[in-house]
Amino acid sequence: MRIAIIGGGIAGLAAAYELEKARQAGAAVEYTLFEERPRLGGSLASEIVDGAVLERGPDSFLTEKPAAAELCRELGLGGELIPSNDAARKTYIVTRNRLVALPDGLMFLVPTKLVPTALTRLFSVRTKMRMALELLHPPRPNDGDESVARLVERHFGQEAVDRLADPLLSGIYGGDATQLSAQTVLPRLVEMETKYGSLTRGMLAAHRKMRAMAKGSSNGVNRGAAIFTALRGGMQQLVGAITERLDAASVRTSTPVSGIEKTAQGWRVQAGGVSQVFDALIMAAPAWAAGALLTPVDAALGAELSGIPYSSSITVNLIYDERKIGPLPEGFGFLVPAVEGRAMLACTFAHRKFLGRTPPGKAVFRAFLGGMKRVDLLDESDEALVAIVRREMREILGAKTISAEVEPEFAQVTRWRRAMAQYAVGHKARMQRVNARVAALPGLRLVGNAYDGIGVPDCIRLGRKAARELAGAEAPIPVSKV
Ligand SMILES: Cc1cc2nc3c(=O)[nH]c(=O)nc-3n(C[C@H](O)[C@H](O)[C@H](O)COP(=O)(O)OP(=O)(O)OC[C@H]3O[C@@H](n4cnc5c(N)ncnc54)[C@H](O)[C@@H]3O)c2cc1C
After folding, report:
1. Nearest Cα to 225, choosing from 330, 10, 333, 81?
2. Mind listing the pLDDT tens digit for each residue in 32-55?
3. Are 139 and 197 in contact (CB under 8 A)?
4. Beta bridge partners of 231
5. Cβ distance 32 to 250 under 8 Å?
6. In this predicted model, what pLDDT tens digit does every residue of 293-302 receive, in sequence order?
7. DSSP SS3 for 249
8. Strands 362-370 and 410-421
9. Contact 370 CB / ligand 1 (< 6 Å)
10. Disulfide check for 380: which of 103, 384, 393, 445 has CB 3.0–4.6 Å away?
11. 136 CA distance to ligand 1 centroid (A)?
């Protein structure tokens, strides 16, 4: 079985790793990984500058999704996994230029603790009353998709959208709460509304159930696990460890795939001026690239894939000498709602979020800009973007903390164009149509962040699963179970 993998981001790399394992175990499998850029890893890219780990893309993964940590352990990186410093976890929302901590008891956008919600400066009295009355919300049948903003607005009002849903989702997805699908992005909340009506009551019930399970379980069901897990030396460690295990002759970087054809012999792939036939194809390029390549094979499938929206974003890493800046507020950083009218969507105090990745005496700030609403920022120069971040940090944290005179010791800007898929309203229905078309094209698998989970663990899970199915180790599954 000859398999082509198109795209060397983490999804394509995870697939290649699995095929390499099968090959070494004696399976009759050959693979070629095509990556258009000179380097592998896609959005995963980190560097160590003056002893500080700087993440250009993802800085960590969610601990509750095991696929990434499992792969790291398999690759011998278990000792390199580090937890987020949750003892210091506190996130602020910029509210009228001031930092307001997210109230205690907030779970997936849902307030579950009365006193912190009543006391927070994040919401007006009117919104707090609305949150209290939400307990009386009647159950509602799940009869079609709607936006996250609409779901949150129906339960908690517009201010909860502006001050909570919007910054949390744009800080994670670079996304727009008015566009993102509630069914796909917040399926648990949609289920809770059907069952309980009130999301607060649903969340409290789920919390009670989890606590009971944790008590009943001998190992405490991951009790006390940190929310995020990172690699001590940065995400690049994962890319490096996979790459080392791959057969070098099977990996072709700087080789964009320019055409695909389905023939009686299999899948004809054109790349780097050469045309080769494969028995199967793992498409790990972003959906917009996959759509363009697959249109000649199946126009309807191509149109569905091209229709998946993507957001672009920018990360700006700044290293400061801690002696030259004032004391920072406690916690991991802040999120900026769009209603504040700023360029920054979020800023992480990276030296606080993961300990041991920054030399003593240095502070690392990781600002996130752009997203669906500020595409224009991508055209700004690096100097302009650094100046914007420094100005906004000064305005938000105060000139005593970051004064205009203090220069960062190092600044790094990375633009991520159309890198993050957006699960827009109707995504689930779109995936059903995509699944049906893919099922009619034997040997084709779609993997990556556009289908069944945006984060690194989901991309790894899909990549490995597709490879195992094709290598014959696992029964096929639809590309998405959403
Ligand atoms: C700034 C940022 C921060 C993030 N933070 C987090 C985080 O903290 N935690 C988390 O879990 N996730 C995070 N994510 C999301 C996560 O990193 C991505 O969803 C994931 O890495 C995507 O992997 P992928 O393999 O699907 O796609 P990509 O990484 O985009 O890889 C696709 C690859 O396909 C290649 N390609 C495209 N067209 C062709 C072609 N024609 N021929 C050959 N190759 C082609 C591209 O060059 C690219 O290398 C973040 C993403 C970004 C951008």
Report:
1. 81
2. 999 999 999 999 999 999 999 999
3. yes
4. 81
5. yes
6. 999 999 999 9
7. helix
8. unpaired
9. no
10. 384
11. 42
